[in-house]
Amino acid sequence: MYYAYKYRLKPSDAHREELDRHRDICRQLYNHTLYRLNEYQDEHGELPSMTTLRSELPDLKNWWDGLSDVYSKVLQTVVERLFDNLKGLSKLKENGYGVGQLKWKPPREFRSFTYNQSGFKLDKKGGQTVLSLSKLADIPIRLHRAIPDDANLKQVTVKKEPTGEWFATFGAQMDREPPEPTENPEKCVGIDVGILKYAHDTDGTAVESLDLSDERERLEREQRKLSRKQHGSNNYEKQRRRVAECHADLRRKRRDFLHKLSNYYAREYDLVAVEDLNVKGMMESPSNSRNTASAAWRTFFSLLEYKCEREGTHFVAVNPRGTTKECASCGVSTEKPLWVREHSCPACGFEADRDANAAWNILSRGLQDVGVGYSESTPVETALPTDTDSVSVKRVVETGSPTLKERTASAVSE
Ligand SMILES: [Zn+2]
């Protein structure tokens, strides 16, 4: 299995200059290779292979001062990157390659370069951990979480964010296989995602939506300031950076929340059931806020799926049709407009929070899909929780789990 580990670099001013210089040589090489690609196609009527263009690198170094300053494997990955982009393009355009559509990269659009297989290592220098990059520098790095000992580091990509910060992302391979999901999952959970509550699960935990209104307000304020600055001036550039920082801050907080929430479910349970958003998306009429929310759910589910695989937890995406309308206790469907927050079944009298009822339906469909013997005593019949713990986002973000002792127990109805 492959894992990605991302860390912040702490480059000095001299390091920054070198990083930028290498980045720009890579960018120029990218543009040059694109030029060669077009030239070759004009001459030969077909595209050159990646090997052909890579084999031109040694000759290039004879007349291109500076190219030799960059580690040779890094240069090779630049050529690979162009071919990757080409592949992506050909997938879009089934009728032949549209090379003409690959664009030259201005500095703002070329932010990273990659050491593959060799030329980099983590080291200790003068009491601090550094990322040692061949032909570049030893750059201090903040390892806020450890890389597992058995992780085999295959490559590292260093990237400059629009804020000016540099990050290093390691691609690591683990030799150990992920654990097989257990055949008889004992701890199972269904999760209903929503707009009012971010997630509502069958263990009676409701996680509130992330409140980023302060961060959003700040972003808007900085954007307004930017619009008053003269385009291209020093102040404009400074302000543009501030706006980029606001964006990065929002993004970081959102990801952090989703990482922690998905970690929690993947580690805590043997089976996790959610709704299949691909089906759900087609059923619901698109509206703007709905689409934004559904993009965030997608991210959440994809993190959850990958972490479940890592932990040996079953991940099931079930058909979402009617999960809200159906009674989790007897299966009878009743219409329920969005503003009705309570489920109250006219057929069997079962009452529950609307989202809890949906979560139970998601779980029982998930158990059916996996075909595990959980049905003897349906959880719905035996263990429906009567009330719900509402958990603040702060709790998830600070502790990484919504189930720590200090749950704020409060009934969920209003
Ligand atoms: Zn019922």
UniProtKB/TrEMBL annotation:
Residues 213-225 have a biased composition (Basic and acidic residues). Keywords: DNA recombination, DNA-binding, Metal-binding, Transposition, Zinc. The keyword Repressor does not apply. GO terms for molecular function: DNA binding; metal ion binding. Residues 1-43 form the Transposase putative helix-turn-helix domain. It holds the Pfam family HTH_OrfB_IS605. One of its GO terms (biological process) is DNA recombination. NCBIfam families: guided_TnpB, IS200/IS605 family accessory protein TnpB-like domain. In the C-terminal section; belongs to the transposase 35 family. In the N-terminal section; belongs to the transposase 2 family. This is Transposase. It comes from Haloarcula amylolytica JCM 13557.
